[in-house]
Amino acid sequence: MNSYDAIIIGGGACGLMCAVQAGLLGKKTLVLERNDKPGAKILISGGGRCNFTNLYTSPENFVSENPKFLNTVFAQWTVDDTLAFFENFGGIKGKEKTLGQLFPLTNKAKDIVATFTRLLYETGQDIWLNARVQSVDAVDAGYTVTFEREGKERTLQSAKVVFASGGLPVAKLGASDLALKTARKFGLEVIPTAPALVPLTITGKEAGWYASLAGNSVFARVYNEKIAFEENILFTHWGLSGPAILQISSYWRTSETFTIDLLPKFKMDDLIRQERHAGGKRTVGQLLNDHFTKKMVDAWAKFLPITTKIASLSKADAALIAETIHRFQVKPAGDKGYDKAEVMRGGVSTAELHPKTLEAKKYRGLYFGGEAVDITGWLGGYNFQWAWAAGYAIAQDL
User: Hey, is 279 helix, strand or coil?
Assistant: First the structure.
């Protein structure tokens, strides 16, 4: 029977990096992955293209009770380290899309996973697929890991166990609350969890208006008192999606309102003034048609006097137009849940972990990394950078 320096639960981004980095240090690990292939979530990320890091990663790009916890982790494994790793070991060069988002030059997420699977083999690490971990228990010599594989229940012992088993989003990819349940069982604090980077739903009397705009994408500034994002929003049959909405969702709580500036690059007051100087013969709808689709302009008729000529516009109506376009208030009913969420907010409290190694302070040899921890990145490669850095940091201590 093989003897392992550590058992790693989860063959996703954090678990694979942890196993490979441990292997590069001459250690032997076993990865237990519940899916029939490693890196399942990596393979679907970015529409199968994998936005594997972000050039501008910093603790400010993360939602957490204590984002500064990341300073120590990111000091050990930087964005430059990520770039060097994939180029040196996988021949993968990154190309920037927008806002620092880096994708493989090949646009293939499978190239990222292939790099890890080859390195697992070359460094002598074991990975057992279709292995469903049921429980982890503390024993005198470390930990007992109970799992089911090929229809049989099995147990293994190890002095060190790494939870890299992800969070609750996307059940079809093996989403699991195992790390959270185990943390609670061991008396570790878990920050309340919720879907994050998730589309938001609109119900009630406004639902029909949003549904009528389904498919319309608009560059906008979406903000609340905590944060602001300037990216596209997408109207859907059930509410709002698109990058800016996914971003704000991580900072939104049920019953709260946020604001959308639907024309952030212009000022309606200036546009109206310019129209007046030109004679004001065009209608409000014609002016709006310069910046929005016809479907959207027609939808504005619910709120705005779109058939009124600019020259005839009252001060009150001009103010209403500016207020509506630049400070459109949205109060979502909820979100689309874990199956549509990119990540999970909350998780094992950073206060329970050593910032350099991610080892539990109360239990020697027990580590938590990746999505299971109360570290949630913005959309755009930040969560992958956290996963790689966490895997590296843990591996140094195994």
Answer: coil
